[in-house]
Amino acid sequence: FQNKSSADVTVEKGITNNGSFIGCNGTACDYHFIKDSAFISGSDTVFISRLHGKTIINRGILSIEKKIIVDSLINESVLVLQIDSQNIDGEFIFNSTPNTLVFNKNGDQNIPLTITAVNNLIIKNSGNKILTNNILINGDLTIGKFSSLKCDSFQLHGNQNGKIKIDSLGSLKIGHNLNDQDIVFPTLFKGTELHDSSTVYYSAKGNQTISSLPVYGNITIDDGAVDSSFKTLSGDSLLINGNLTLSESSLILVINEN
Length: 258
Description:
Blueprint: E1 9-11, E2 15-16, E3 21-22, E4 30-33, E5 37-41, E6 45-58, E7 61-75, E8 78-81, E9 88-93, E10 100-103, E11 109-110, E12 117-118, E13 120-123, E14 128-130, E15 135-137, E16 141-143, E17 148-151, E18 156-157, E19 163-166, E20 171-174, E21 191-194, E22 199-202, E23 208-210, E24 215-216, E25 218-221, E26 229-233, E27 239-240, E28 244-246, E29 251-254
Parallel strand pairs: 1-4, 2-5, 3-6, 4-6, 5-6, 6-7, 7-8, 7-9, 8-10, 10-13, 11-14, 12-15, 13-16, 14-17, 15-18, 16-19, 17-20, 19-21, 20-22, 22-25, 23-26, 24-27, 25-28, 26-29
């Protein structure tokens, strides 16, 4: 299916796509699902620029570029979002197993406040993807090549079913040098795979805990230019395959309380 116009579309039932589905000529088409509930399914991606409806249940591969206005959106498969949080309205249920949520806008992108739990989370493309709430990840966290996830003021939590993977030249930014919260490396994951060219930034204003669990590619530690701060290792060693950069002379790296 290829919509060669930019007119709005009304969908009476649902969409099943096992081939090619291009929902709009451009990005101006609004898709209105008029039933109380509608399913999206199939083995290939459904590209929709603007989604409107009551209860939408995704059991296929759904990519949304510009806007979501729904009562509820339930993801039970793969959902790809290029939109910003100001263009989202509704309840989002993304914690079923399995499901995968992908943020892939080229440029900075806020992860919506209403998203508090997901199964698998994938960060792709350039720009910072920014947490706006604490999030529980029940599966895997993957930060793709050239991609960046910012945990300025909010905490990522995992569990023993999942792992963290950061691809080449990807980055994870923990804390913010205008905020003195001790945001820590994502907790409770069973394993980590950090590429040698990846970077983890510890940037809290003031004291912060540095995790000893991962084998890092590169680490940069900053403290927001306060008079002094203590960056304390959670264990007795720090394994780094690349570079350790201390960005401020005012910070003190503490190992085993020494």
